[in-house]
Design brief:
This protein has helices at residues 3-23, 29-37, 41-55, 58-79; strands at residues 85-88, 104-105, 108-109, 112-117, 120-124. It is α+β, with helices and mostly antiparallel strands. Strand 2 and strand 3 form a beta hairpin.
């Protein structure tokens, strides 16, 4: 069994345990994971790790802190963008209107279209 297959099976067993204990909180979790692991010690250990992590809210707090750090870096990078350029949403997202040089969007006057893609149009403004 590959590592990927083992993790998928461990995740499936974890979800089965979660569903079972939701319906029957007194269910014998250890017996269930022993049975489903069928003697595979590595699989059993992985399921136990998933169960332990799901009970430890510090995992979620760590993840939330990491996401907050990423958001702060994105905001910081956005603050450093030159004010001579702006990204304008795609026409489809704004009532099918096409921006033109000379249009005013907020405090920006569009000067020259640099390019466009799936997520919008980039202008010198």
């Amino acid at each position: 069994m590959t590592e990927k297959e083992r993790f998928k099976l461990a995740a499936d067993i974890f979800l089965e345990v979660a569903r079972t204990t939701e319906v029957d909180p007194s269910a014998d979790v250890e017996a269930l994971i022993q049975q489903r692991s069928a003697g595979d010690a590595a699989l059993l250990a992985e399921v136990r790790q998933l169960l332990a992590a799901s009970k430890d809210d510090s995992v979620f707090k760590t993840l939330a802190a990491a996401l907050g750090t990423v958001q702060a870096h994105v905001r910081s990078a956005a603050d450093r963008l030159p004010t001579s350029a702006t990204v304008v949403g795609s026409p489809a997202g704004r009532g099918l209107t096409e921006e033109r040089a000379g249009d005013v969007i907020g405090r920006y006057t569009l000067v020259e279209r640099l390019g466009e893609g799936g997520f919008g149009t980039v202008w010198v403004a």
